[in-house]
Each structure stands twice: as C-alpha cells, then as structure tokens.
C-alpha cells in the first residue's frame, strides 16, 4: 500500500536535511497536518516535525491557526 504524500514529504525532508523543517517545507505539509488534526488521525511523525518548526516560527503558527479556523468555518456550514 502506498504511503500518504505527507509521509513521503516528511521522510524525504528528514533524510536529506537537518531535522528542522524550513517555513516552505512546513507550509507544504501543513494542509496534511490540518486534515489529520480535524479527522483526529494519529500522525506522530508529521506532528513531531511540524511541532518542532512551530515551536520557533510565529509566521507558520499564524498560518496553522488560519487554516484550522478555515476548516472549522467549513464544518459549521
């Protein structure tokens, strides 16, 4: 069975670079993260990679909040 795209992205990032995601990489996988959060899926590898980046990146935290708010608005409609 093929792995989800977010797993491939995180795996590639972690194997070829330092363990920290760049903002561009974080934003690339952020939608997969939001999808997993909203679906209550257990995605520990993705969560750990994004959490490390979000712990020191204010801009990406704001973008995550924006995307989560957007999801919540869609669910209410």
What do these coordinates show?
This protein has 77 residues and is mostly helical. It contains four helices and no strands. Helix 2 crosses helix 3. The longest helix is centred in the last third of the chain and has 19 residues. The model has no long low-confidence stretch (mean pLDDT 78).
Task: Please supply descriptive tags for the structure shown above.
77 residues; mainly alpha; 4 helices; 75% helix; globular
List the topology elements.
Layout: H1 5-16, H2 23-38, H3 44-54, H4 58-76
**Element-level helix/strand string:** HHHH
Mean pLDDT across residues: 78
- What is the number of E strands? 0
C-alpha termini separation: 34 Å
Radius of gyration: 13 Å
Strand content: under 5%
Binned, the helix content reads over 70%
Low-confidence stretches: none
Largest sheet: none
- What shape does the CA trace take? globular
Our count of helices gives 4
Global structural class:
mainly alpha
Short description:
The chain is mostly helical.
């Amino acid at each position: 069975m093929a792995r989800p795209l977010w797993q491939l992205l995180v795996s590639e990032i972690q194997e070829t670079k330092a363990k920290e995601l760049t903002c561009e990489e974080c934003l690339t996988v952020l939608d997969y993260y939001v999808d997993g959060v909203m679906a209550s899926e257990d995605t520990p590898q993705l969560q750990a990679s994004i959490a490390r980046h979000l712990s020191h990146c204010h801009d990406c935290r704001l973008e995550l909040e924006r995307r989560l708010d957007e999801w919540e608005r869609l669910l209410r409609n």
